[in-house]
Amino acid sequence: MSEKKEMLTGKALAMNGLVAYQEGTVVSRTLIDKQVGTITVFAFDEGQGLSEHTAPYDAFVQILDGEAEITIAGEPHHVIAGQMIIMPANKPHALKGIKNFKMLLVMIRA
User: Count of CB atoms within 10 A of residue 44's CB?
Assistant: First the structure.
């Protein structure tokens, strides 16, 4: 187990504190990366995002802080802190920060 992973294991932590905003960019931190899936925390500066793409698996997104526009198959969704959305497998999706936002992404590869 890497030293960074050991620092997370067996502790109660606030997810908001696991990544910090950086001006003009997207920051990510992978918490778990296994063959069966990943758990990653992201911080997006206002206006930053991920361009449209598809994934072969459903992806669960929970907004931890701020506001995002998540577009799935051409339909925009305004998602705010405390809300979640599931991006279905094989449907094009994109994310953009309406304000700075942090999110938890869980992808199960099964």
Answer: 27
Summarised one tens digit per residue, pLDDT across range 92-106 is 999 999 999 999 999
Position 81, amino acid:
A
19: three-class secondary structure by DSSP: coil
Phi, psi at 59, each rounded to 5°: -130, 130
Taking Cα atoms as reference points, which of 66, 84, 64, 68 lies closest to residue 76? 68
Residues 6+ apart with CB under 8 A from 66: 44, 80, 81, 97, 98, 99, 100, 101, 102
Name the residue type at position 96: K
pLDDT band of 4, cuts 50, 70, 90 = low
How much is the pLDDT for 2?
57
Q: What's the pTM value of the predicted model, to 2 decimals?
A: 0.90
pLDDT digits (tens, 9 = 90+) for 24-33: 999 999 999 9
The CATH superfamily assigned to 22-108 is Jelly Rolls (2.60.120.10)
Domain limits, the chain: 22-108
